[in-house]
């Protein structure tokens, strides 16, 4: 993959720490070949060296070619393998990116579970984490408005444990039987396969109206959560309610949480739309580059637990996947940390062939009666058979690192050889028996079940608006404004009046002002009164501003430094060095990639070779821009594309830094009466535009501080 941070940057050498060479990487090495080995020669799949793979064997006379011969096993094999290269893409979450990493526990949860991975603090458990979008095909864009998948495979000493989660803590539906309907409604419409990777169409919103249970989740998808800045800056949630069982046999209900140490940050919608075209691989490159640069993304791992005896103490059903467990009621206990520290070696055999299953649990961890989870436990296992074949668990990325055996031996593409004369249990030799409890055998919790066989949902499942209101009430004003714009965008793309009218009516069950704003925008009758009264309760942790790190960091943020011939070298080199020292990624952007010269520098001087030119990149792909002062400013003023960089960055709420002559450039480009600009030595920060008329070290520091994410203060 071409690295977007490579050119012009002193790229940090990719050195693998010994921690990353864990049990799983060692296991995969058994199946890895190095294509770059100079001793390699092309062979057929059956190992015979090929002397020519460029010309099909032909019947020829002299230098005149005749018909091609079927006899050519090299040619036939090459085309045959090509013809069968593709496998079915995932029916959902088709587009993804993944990385290896390590999970470390810093506090044992032995009071609630016996699982080694959650009790043994001396362990370092290898993980593989795949991020994804849900609705788009494999070739769709990264920055679409969508839920993001957050699927983690823990290769534990007791077998694989998968948390197949999302970056949003709730789900659209309560019962797995509805999954095909919601996905069909969200995917491209069946008659013309339009639109790709979008929920902005009639069918999706028709479904949302007809299923009140989706209200909470669709409010999340219309918030900034659905357009993350980076996979590294979003939360992960197990969503479903699982269970933990401790040594005493006591059971707790549990929800799993991953909280990113970089905070939770998003794009703005216009930016996301543009990036989808300008760099459809934006998120996967961001993840790849951060790991290559040694800036390993980290998440704190936490659990919310509820003892079995308190299952019914809440006014919502704790087994309902459309509900959060508000942190005020059930605090998160952070007990571990997950770090991603190694990129995959190959996309297909690792990121594409990895297969997650909610039913992959290890002793000490179990299921609840959450009806969404129960259905998922069937679906994941089943889908892998279509995608990968019946022996999918044997694939290198999927197999466990602990010993595994059973008497299921055959099936298509089985390659493991099990030696021995019996393939059943019990057998006359007594070999291959099930494990006892002492040997670590998985024991189901003896849950008492009594009841009638019926198709129903429990009573509390019918409250569909309380938490949708709770979520919306908890958002910061700018987050609410973004929800209004998002809904207005989505419903603008629905041309059936029934769809957008009914949906705006539904919004009145959440917030009247929101419903009115959206109705006005999309041309629906404006609701005059709230459908369901708002309870006005809030839960602060539902706003993503809650996760802003206490110490804002600029680490891994992309900063564009705009230059033309005649830039102020003191400001340029000073800011660049300060940014690098703070872990940011500075990029020089100029009118050309050939050298650009500093003020006072002779044209024959070495100059600075920009990483990109103004036409080659866009402001959307950076978190912030800085413009040093100097005579170059006059040239930038005459460059429409450079001015667009400044205006667009401001429009996308990005931090902008300028010194000296560049202050006036920013002022004129943005034409903003409300923004103050420095006219002296003093550093002025107004709306994220940080200016200092004179070049002075404080301005570098301030610029860096501001790049923490301008969205925090708009
Ligand atoms: Fe699912 C894939 C997350 C409900 C059926 N799902 C899939 C992936 C993620 C999720 C992250 C991609 C895994 C990967 O990277 O390979 N799904 C969720 C969450 C859900 C959820 C958080 C609600 C709590 N899913 C859900 C239901 C069903 C499915 C209710 C079916 C009854 N999901 C699937 C699937 C997929 C899948 C069809 C497609 C590819 C795969 O499983 O491996 O089986």
* SS field, number of helical segments: 18
What share of the residues lie within helices? Answer: 25-40%
Q: Low-confidence parts lasting 5 or more residues at pLDDT below 50?
A: 1-20, 706-714
Strand tally is: 19
Q: How far from one another are the termini?
A: 35 Å
CATH top-level class of the domain at 96-182 and 224-301 and 329-394: Mainly Beta
Q: How large is the share of residues in beta strands?
A: 15-25%
By CATH, the topology of the domain at 96-182 and 224-301 and 329-394 is: Catalase HpII,  Chain A, domain 1
Profile the largest sheet: 10 strands, antiparallel
Mean pLDDT: 92
Annotated CATH architecture of the domain at 96-182 and 224-301 and 329-394: Beta Barrel
What is the CATH homology-level superfamily of the domain at 96-182 and 224-301 and 329-394?
Catalase core domain
- Gross morphology: globular
* Helix-and-strand structural type: alpha+beta
Which cofactors or ions or other ligands sit in this model?
CIS-heme D hydroxychlorin gamma-spirolactone
Estimated radius of gyration = 28 Å
């Amino acid at each position: 993959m071409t690295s977007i941070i490579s050119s012009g940057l002193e790229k940090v050498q990719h050195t693998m720490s010994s921690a990353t060479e864990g049990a799983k990487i060692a296991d995969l090495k058994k199946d890895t070949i190095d294509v770059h080995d100079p001793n390699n020669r092309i062979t057929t799949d059956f190992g015979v060296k090929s002397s020519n793979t460029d010309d099909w064997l032909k019947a020829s006379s002299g230098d005149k070619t005749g018909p091609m011969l079927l006899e050519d096993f090299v040619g036939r094999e090459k085309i045959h393998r090509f013809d069968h290269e593709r496998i079915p893409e995932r029916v959902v979450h088709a587009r993804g990116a993944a990385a290896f990493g390590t999970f470390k526990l810093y506090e044992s949860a032995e009071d609630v579970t016996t699982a080694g991975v959650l009790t043994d603090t001396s362990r370092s458990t290898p993980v593989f984490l795949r991020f994804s979008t849900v609705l788009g095909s494999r070739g769709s864009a990264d920055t679409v408005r969508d839920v993001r998948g957050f699927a983690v495979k823990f290769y534990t000493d007791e077998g694989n444990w998968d948390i197949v989660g999302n970056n949003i803590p709730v789900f659209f539906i309560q019962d797995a039987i509805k999954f095909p309907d919601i996905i069909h409604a969200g995917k491209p419409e069946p008659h013309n396969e339009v639109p790709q990777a979008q929920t902005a169409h009639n069918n999706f919103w028709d479904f949302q109206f007809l299923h009140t249970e989706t209200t909470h989740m669709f409010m999340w998808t219309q918030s900034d959560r659905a357009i993350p800045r980076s996979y590294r800056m979003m939360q992960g949630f197990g969503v479903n309610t699982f269970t933990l069982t401790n040594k005493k046999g006591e059971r707790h209900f549990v929800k799993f949480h991953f909280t990113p140490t970089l905070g939770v940050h998003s794009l703005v919608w216009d930016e996301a739309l543009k990036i989808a075209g300008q760099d459809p691989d934006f998120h996967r490159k961001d993840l790849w580059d951060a790991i290559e640069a040694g800036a390993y993304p980290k998440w704190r791992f936490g659990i919310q637990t509820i003892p079995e005896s308190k299952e019914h103490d809440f006014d919502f059903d704790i087994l309902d996947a459309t509900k959060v467990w508000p942190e005020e009621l059930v605090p998160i206990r952070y007990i571990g940390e997950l770090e991603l520290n190694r990129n995959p070696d190959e996309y297909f055999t690792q990121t594409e062939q990895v297969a997650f299953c909610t039913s992959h649990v290890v002793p000490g961890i179990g299921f609840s009666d959450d009806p969404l989870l129960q259905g998922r436990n069937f679906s994941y296992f089943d889908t892998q058979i279509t995608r990968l074949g019946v022996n999918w668990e044997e694939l290198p990325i999927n197999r466990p690192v602990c010993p595994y055996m059973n008497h299921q031996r055959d099936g298509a593409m089985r390659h493991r050889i099990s030696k021995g004369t019996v393939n059943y249990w019990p057998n006359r030799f007594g070999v291959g028996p099930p494990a006892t409890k002492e040997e670590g055998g998985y024991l189901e919790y003896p849950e008492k079940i009594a009841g009638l066989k019926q198709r129903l949902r429990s009573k509390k499942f019918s409250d569909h608006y309380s938490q949708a209101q709770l979520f919306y009430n908890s958002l910061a004003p700018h987050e609410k404004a973004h929800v209004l714009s998002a809904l207005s965008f989505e419903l603008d793309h629905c041309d059936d009046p029934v769809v957008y009218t009914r949906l705006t009516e539904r919004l009145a069950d959440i917030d009247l002002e929101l419903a009115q704003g959206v109705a006005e925008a999309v041309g629906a009758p404006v609701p005059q009164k709230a459908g369901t009264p708002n309870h006005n309760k809030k839960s602060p942790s539902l706003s993503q501003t809650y996760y802003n790190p206490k110490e804002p960091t600029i680490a891994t943020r992309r900063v564009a430094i705009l230059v033309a011939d005649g830039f102020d070298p003191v400001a340029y080199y000073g800011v660049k060095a300060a940014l690098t020292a703070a872990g940011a990624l500075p990029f020089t952007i100029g009118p050309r990639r050939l050298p650009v010269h500093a003020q006072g520098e002779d044209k024959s001087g070495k100059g600075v070779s920009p990483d990109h030119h103004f036409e080659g990149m866009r402001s959307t792909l950076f978190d912030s821009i800085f413009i040093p002062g100097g005579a170059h400013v006059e040239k930038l003023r005459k460059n429409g594309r450079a001015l667009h960089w400044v205006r667009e960055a401001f429009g996308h709420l990005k931090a902008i830094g300028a010194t000296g002559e560049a202050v006036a450039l920013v002022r004129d480009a943005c034409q903003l009466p409300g923004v103050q600009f420095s006219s002296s030595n003093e550093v002025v920060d107004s709306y994220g535009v940080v200016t200092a008329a004179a070049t002075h070290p404080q301005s570098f520091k301030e610029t860096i501080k501001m790049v923490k994410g301008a969205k925090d203060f708009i």
